């Protein structure tokens, strides 16, 4: 999730430290689940950046974060590129003459 909470995989109260490798992404809802022990959920971070959430009933859900790196726009498909080229070819030619005053 690119819009998420970055949270300690191991609670700060246990280690007293923060480092980038110890942070995992949680949406707000899952962050609250993780930080409310009376609800009975547990979380297990993995070296590859995924996190397993275990429900009080024992069901497990593993999330995998998106690839790291810059967000880049998707290149246009050939159909879009062709449509853009055609629209430009059909547009009236612009002249760069000064206004008549």
First and last CA, distance = 56 Å
Strand content: 15-25%
Helix/strand order, N-terminal first: EHEHEEEH
Largest sheet: 3 strands, antiparallel
| Assembly level | single chain
Instruction: Supply Rg.
Output: 25 Å
Structural class: alpha+beta
Q: Helical amount among residues, as a percent range? A: 10-25%
The DSSP helix count reads: 3
Low-confidence stretches: none
Protein architecture, described:
This protein is of the alpha+beta class. The chain contains three helices and five strands; from the N terminus they run βαβαβββα. The longest helix has 13 residues. The mean pLDDT is about 75.
Write out key terms for the chains shown.
20% strand, 101 residues, 3-stranded antiparallel beta sheet, alpha+beta, elongated, 24% helix
Any chance you could write out the topology, listing elements then pairs?
Elements: E1 5-8, H1 12-15, E2 23-26, H2 28-34, E3 42-45, E4 51-54, E5 60-63, H3 78-90
Antiparallel strand pairs: 1-2, 3-4, 4-5
Summarize the structure.
By secondary structure, this protein is an alpha+beta fold.
